[in-house]
Specification:
heterodimer, A: 5-stranded antiparallel β-sheet, B: mainly beta, 4-stranded antiparallel β-sheet
């Protein structure tokens, strides 16, 4: 079935850039998403990209999509301690009736 | 972005009782809402798709008689955990889509069954 994979942990220093990577298998993906989850909270939609785009930038966030390799990344510039959270990659799968398929989440730790 | 409100944020109930969780879309209408369960340090597991005015669609392995879903209006879906047991303790999150593009999530409900 469709699968979304992320590395589980990333640790960076405050002020550095963070890059969180995600791979997926479903070639029918229409949209791909990045969500942020802080402890005990729901998911906050950070950004999303349509599958025929290869880049989207929104302030400190840059999303890169390599559709051929089915690879998605989220770059956070000038990472702050408030960016510490779990980041989920998700794809909207046409083959699964438009459901969101989530990765396992990457825990980002930002050290001062 | 759009707002999805979930209530309550935390609930503790006794084993054998039922608990209702509400999910509301505050500034848009949602014909479809989704209910997820999240275990500690884990990803979201889709439980069911809630359809306004019709029966919910449950994912494989999710007991529909255990997790009752009602989507009576375009802005409200409810999940009732019936005859709750400690193994039902979890974080439950709802979401609603706008135009099958953006998906917004509620704040989540931490259910503890004692």
């Amino acid at each position: 079935g469709e699968d979304v994979e992320q590395s589980l942990f990333l640790s960076v220093r405050e002020g550095d850039s963070s890059v969180i990577n995600c791979t997926y298998t479903d070639s029918s993906s229409t949209y791909l998403y990045w969500y942020k989850q802080e402890p005990g909270a729901g998911l906050q939609l950070l950004t999303y990209i349509f599958s025929n785009m290869d880049m989207k930038q929104d302030q400190r966030l840059t999303v890169l999509l390599n559709k051929k390799d089915k690879h998605l990344s989220l770059r956070i510039a000038d990472t702050q301690t408030g960016d510490s959270a779990i980041y989920f990659c998700a794809e909207r799968s046409y083959n699964q009736g438009g459901k969101l398929i989530f990765g396992q989440g990457t825990e980002l730790s930002v050290k001062p | 972005g759009a707002v999805v409100s979930q209530h309550p944020s935390r609930v503790i109930c006794k084993s054998g009782t039922s608990v209702k969780i509400e999910c509301r879309s505050l500034d848009f209408q949602a014909t479809t809402m989704f209910w997820y369960r999240q275990f500690p340090k884990k990803s979201l597991m889709l439980m069911a798709t809630s359809n306004e005015g019709s029966k919910a669609t449950y994912e494989q392995g999710v007991e529909k008689d255990k997790f009752l879903i009602n989507h009576a209006s375009l802005t409200l879906s409810t999940l009732t955990v019936t005859s709750a047991h400690p193994e039902d303790s979890s974080f439950y999150i709802c979401s609603a889509d706008i135009s099958n593009t953006e998906a917004f999530f509620g704040q989540g409900t931490r259910l503890t069954v004692v």
